[in-house]
Amino acid sequence: MEKGKRKFIGHLTLDGERQIQEVEQGGSYRYLGIAQVFAPITLTTKYRLRRKFLGRLRAVWRSLLNAKQKAISTNTRATAVFQYYFGILQWGTSELDRLDCTVCRTISRFHGHHRNASILRLYITRMEGGRGLTSLQQVWEQSVASLYENLIWQTEPWLRGVLLHQQWKHAQFKSSLIQEVYTVFHRHGLPLPGSERESTIERPTAARMVRASQQRVLIETLRRKRIHGAHRHTLEAAEGRYDSTLWLRYGKSKAETEALVFAAQDGVLHTNKYRRDVLRQDIDPACRLCHEGPETIGHILSCCPHSLWKSIKLRHDRVLATLIKHVGRARGLEIPSTDATSTTVEDTNTKLWVDLTIPTAEQITERRPDLVIHLKDEKVIWVVDVAVSWDPLVAERELEKTAKYRDLMADLGRRYVGWNVQAIPVVIGSLGTVGGLRRFLLITGIFDSHNAERVVEEIQQAALRGSAQMIRRQLSMR
Ligand SMILES: [Zn+2]
User: Fold this and answer.
1) Contact, 399 vs 441, CB < 8 A?
2) In whole angstroms, what is the distance from residue 62 CA to residue 47 CA?
3) What whole-number percentage of the chain has pLDDT above 70?
4) What H or E segment, with its residue span, contains residue 55?
5) DSSP secondary structure string for all residues of 377-400
6) Does domain 311-475 have CATH number 3.40.91?
7) What pTM was computed for the model?
8) Distance (Å, rounded) from C-alpha 69 to C-alpha 75?
9) In 271-370, at which residue ranges do the beta strands (DSSP E only) sit?
10) Cα of 474 from ligand 1 centre, angstroms
């Protein structure tokens, strides 16, 4: 300043390379990442963070990344903007909730989330059948817990000083990091970190404990929801509970497909039945294609007579083709690339009968399974039947498929004496639920456990892609 006016001196150059930038009018410089200004520091910093966060969020969801990468990028690139400021600036619950709502709205705008679908499932891990995002509320709780834990474990005198200052602030004003920590730990019913300092060798554990508790609370809340929670109960009852979320963990789908499947699982897609019963619209609940049953997701995906010989058959054939491709690969067989069924593929050891009527000695009605695998060296015959079923009925369909070919297997057993003849049901839920599929694939001995997982995942993807196509087509019709 010179005589009350600002004087321009240009950038200052230090040791030939580094520069100190000149501050513009109205601008500020940063110290340890925090802007040094005369205005209330909290407000300006929060405003800046919010803008930066939303900009990054939009960039991620506008991009061509797949669904899983978008979730990871949101957590590591966008949400991380706030992470260093938690525990330093004061944050209120309603403030963080409002920000989380903005996140939901933004993702919905880029078709990454159906507006009626469960918000809780956005924040459940992909292992447990959620989308794997982390809410700002969750990050705040974890950051505050780990910051406090780091402070009480410190031996550095000046960091102990920070803790003493916080304790003094807490005693004086009741607004401090310590107050926030008390709130978080009380909410999750956890003991305060540091109380067992001598006995615990490993650290840090507070953030991990908080994260586990957050997931428990989310899942418990979801289970109590009547409409959104129905799929959770199906998932928990399924034999392949963790295989059912393989498609989420491999994460090859687009965000739009994932959002559609989640909305279908949550039972909130605008089918005629939903529009009449839940949205209270004055319309006919019957299916718009066959006009026979009420139009529910279950009807569209597994029992609409109109799509039985078209899209349901097509989806079934794709699942079968995926299975045949993997069997061929594991046995070193050349599989024709066309989707044509009703063929025989063979080499010296392996013979595959695809969708053929098996000649039998007696008159048997059920003698055309989807696939018969004939392994000469191992002396085994696997009679495989494929089905894409409505999710809660997967276990039932597996039993049905095993029983269906009992006569055929008895006949084959009489003709191939000393051979192992067994029925292998390959049943997958139309919305991804897996029953005993991995167990059945391992029985065949064709796949090792790593390969079996890949096969389950690809079969699941094929079924989900078909289902998503069917839903899109039907719901876009008038
Ligand atoms: Zn129908």
Assistant:
1) no
2) 23
3) 94
4) helix 41-62
5) TTTEEEEEEEEEE-GGGHHHHHHH
6) yes
7) 0.86
8) 10
9) 343-346, 350-354
10) 9
Higher pLDDT, 24 or 62: 62
Largest CA distance in the chain: 112
* Beta-carbon-side half-sphere exposure of residue 450 (alpha carbons within 13 Å): 1
d(CA 35, CA 204) in angstroms, rounded, equals 30
Cβ contacts of residue 148 below 8 Å, gap of 6+?
A: 87, 177, 178, 181, 193, 206
Distance 42 CA to ligand 1 centre (A): 57
Would you state the pLDDT for residue 41?
65
**Dist. CA 200 → ligand 1 center (Å):** 61
Whether the per-residue pLDDT at 133 is higher than 80: the answer is yes
User: Which backbone phi and psi does 343 adopt, to 5 degrees?
Assistant: -140, 170
Return the closest-CA partner of residue 91 out of 153, 57, 55, 141.
141
User: And the tokens for 391?
Assistant: 């999710």
Q: Average pLDDT for residues 20-24, to the nearest whole number?
A: 76
Cα of 116 to ligand 1 centre, how many Å?
Answer: 23
Please count the CA atoms within 13 angstroms of the CA of 346 that sit on its side-chain side: 11
pLDDT tens for 243-272 read 999 999 998 899 999 999 999 999 999 999
pLDDT, residue 204, reads 60
Quote the tokens at residue 27.
Answer: 């601008």
What mean pLDDT do residues 178-194 have?
81
Q: Report how far apart, in Å, the C-alpha atoms of 169 and of each of 89, 175, 222, 475 are.
A: 14, 7, 38, 58
Burial of 121 (0-12, 13-18, 19+ CB in 10 A): buried
Break the chain into its structural domains and give their ranges. 139-224, 311-475
**Near ion ligand 1, which residues have CB within 5 Å?**
287, 289-290, 304
385 CA to middle of ligand 1, Å? 25
